[in-house]
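Narrative progress, year one. The postdoctoral researcher (J.K.) led the effort to move from monomer predictions toward full complexes, under supervision of the PI. The following entry was the first complex the group processed end to end, covering 563 residues in total.
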Amino acid sequence: MKLGKYSARMALILGFYAFLAILALFSKAYADVVFYILLVSVVSQSLNIIFGIAGLVSLGQVVFLGIGVYTFTFLISQGFNPCLSVIAGGFASLIFAVAVGAVLLRLRGIFFACATLILSVAVPYFIIGTGIVGGFAGVNIYKYISSFYNIHVLVFSLLVISLFTTILTIKILESPFGYSLRALKADHDAAETTGINTFRQKMLALCVSAMLTGIAGGILAIKQAYILPLVVFDPLYSIEAILVVLLGGPGTVMGPVLGAFIYEMLRDILMRFAPGFQAFIYGILVIAIILRAREGIVGLLKKNKKLQKLLV
Amino acid sequence: MPILQLENVTKKFGGVVALNNVTFQVEKSEVLGVIGPNGSGKTTLINVISGVYKPESGKLIYKGTNITRVKPHLRCRMGIARTYQVVRIFSGLTVLENVMVGVLNGTKHGKISMEEAMKEAESILSYLGLDKMKNLQAELLNIQYRKRLELARAIGMDPELLMLDECLAGLTPSEVFEMLDVIKRVKEDKDTTIIMVEHLMHAVMNISDRVIVFNEGKIIAEGKPEEIAKDVKVAKVYFGDRELALKFIKR
């Protein structure tokens, strides 16, 4: 699988990001929509690394986002530099991933999925129970961030992270690491007896995934300003990310980005014209994808021979 | 020095003793046939050697090193490769990519670039007559080619010890003939030591330098193929009856 060499593909990817950037510059309302497209996109792209490429169904991606949010909140209220706090969020998520991965990655399939879900539900209650960083009542960080808050800067930062993740995904898919992840997705036991250190590779994938989501979390904290545990750790983020990956095409490079774009646009339209029906329509969408398009939108588009060469 | 030695290896599943105090050795560059009725412990033997199962007691010594507690992926990098009884290829990857995974993670792990791995995988595919389908998704292959692909992946790992678990099962007679030909070529060209677990008697007798016979987790006979063919004990476990066995051997 040679991806990076085709400049047409890179042009298509860059073109899409440029389109999002221009959309964000139109108006404040559009900037908000693009912000959420990119946020969902980064979370889904990083989920794609463990779920789409390595085949580990994680239902708790939000936990890494939340840890990013909370690390940022804590550091900014201690007077740290905002950029540093955002990056620290990524590292906090990474350390958390190493700690939980050491145990959870020994589980497979449905057991891993359940464990990640339980974990992501447990962490906010830990915050509420212990009362750290504001506990149940949350923290208002508006006074710390109002001096530099600018939606366009946030959109731009997410855009850079998303683009970086896209390129990273291409690099992973082209590397021996990517091959071993795809092999262990296909057959875990056979991968082990083909010389792949499955535990190490899964751990690496989880770390990359957690770190990128954690960084996005720091940026989400700036946008939200009021940090509440049950809002930040809403399991809906995890489910959304799964849905977006399935919609876009698991294991593909641009799938999660396109998926996030369509998902957020659809949400915007549904909110306006059919409020209250979102969950119902998403449900139908999931069934349709599973029945008709296992490879998501990118898979469907790839059926066209001309597009096949352009899409990754 | 033998390439692999098993010393008093025992593997139990609950009350079932799948391998009972098994001791034998495999010499460098030989083809060792392993036969026996269903449930006699042949596949368990392969699983213990490749590291999928840990034995309850006993020792495995590979090229002078004790590998009893070594993880499966590290055994692969030391040069032990295997195929499965029920073929386990990597679906979602192309035929070429399947072999590349083997090349990248075998004995050359970490010492080979992606380009070199691709070239090596291509040469192995053409060696095994799979080059025309190298860009197909692996799951699209039929059983004959799947078996061949699994073998190609194992050869890609550049093993010194190759274990084939019923690689002829489910093939038509002409396919069996082709597969045996491939295995013979691999042995001659690469000087690989091969352990071959098989049900097809004529195939094992044809290709093996030495045969061991398992029954209920124990080795009941060991020797040259001709000797095994004449062994009453062996015939008895296959026919279940001594008289019938004697009749068969006389014929």
